[in-house]
Specification:
The protein is α/β, with parallel strands linked by helices and 268 residues long. The chain has nine helices and nine strands.
């Protein structure tokens, strides 16, 4: 069975279309539907551009909020559609060849994996070639990387919200993102902790790369949103910071970054 891909949409027509087109071009037969959720974009050309994309490709399903609801609401709308595995993808990403098959292979490599995130140029625990540090897309774009020698999955305390591949069974059992997190930030961390407390695991797909520009929708509001929602997260899951810091210090955390850095000729 294939998978759906959900992309909540708000700002930046060019980045959004680049993301959507990369999914359509590079997902292969595994892509069932690309579900675009227009969160009342303030960009005047966005709605027309999304309709044109839908009209050109039958795999595109277009949903629209009647007013701006925020990322979490839009993500939940998209994740609620369908009965198969689903990937939630930020609109400021671009995928690479084989990405969807790679995510599905990682997700189903262990029966208790609820969600995985791929490697990226800008995604904290998933960042390469610099672990925990973002680099411009240009540093990796066009480079030939061999990721086959890496472990299929590295287990982590949390995944990264720029790209989340959900096992449908886990999503059905655990539910959607908690709307208490408002317009966004830390909702994916909350979901991952919910999964872990119920016996599921969270992973990084080490053989998949997805480019991520970062902070297009929230821009400078990130710090404030992150602080407020982190307090909410820690009230529910007091061990979250301990677990993430322990992982960050572990040998397996940086194995992918070190491997990519070596292939690029970067010093360790």
């Amino acid at each position: 069975m294939g998978a759906d891909v959900v992309v909540p949409v708000y700002r930046d027509v060019a980045l959004t279309l680049a993301c959507a087109q990369s999914v359509l071009d590079l997902s292969g037969a595994s892509l069932e539907r690309l579900i675009l959720v227009n969160d009342a974009s303030p960009d005047a050309e966005m709605a027309g551009a999304l309709r044109a994309l839908r009209d050109r490709d039958g795999r595109v399903r277009l949903l629209a909020n009647e007013r701006n609801r925020g990322f979490i609401w839009s993500a939940n709308v998209g994740l609620s559609v369908g009965e198969r595995d689903v990937v939630l993808l930020n609109s400021d990403t671009r995928v690479t060849p084989g990405w969807l098959d790679g995510l599905k292979a990682s997700l189903h490599s262990h029966s208790d994996l609820a969600v995985v995130s791929p490697l990226s140029n800008n995604a904290s625990f998933c960042s390469v070639p610099k672990f925990m540090e973002g680099v411009p897309v240009a540093q990796l774009e066009g480079k030939t990387l061999d990721l086959t020698g890496l472990p299929t999955v590295t287990f982590m305390p949390t995944a990264h919200g720029f790209c989340l591949a959900f096992r449908r069974e886990a999503l059905d059992r655990l539910g959607l993102f908690d709307l208490a997190y408002g317009r966004g930030y830390n909702e994916e961390n909350d979901w991952c902790q919910r999964a872990r407390t119920r016996g599921w695991r969270v992973g990084r797909a080490n053989r998949v790369l997805v480019f991520h520009h970062g902070e297009v929708s929230f821009a400078g509001a990130r710090a404030r949103l992150d602080e407020v929602n982190l307090r909410r997260l820690l009230a529910r899951y007091p061990r979250y910071l301990h677990d993430t810091r322990e992982f960050e210090r572990s040998a397996e955390a940086s194995v992918a970054a070190l491997a990519v850095a070596a292939q690029l000729g970067h010093p360790p």
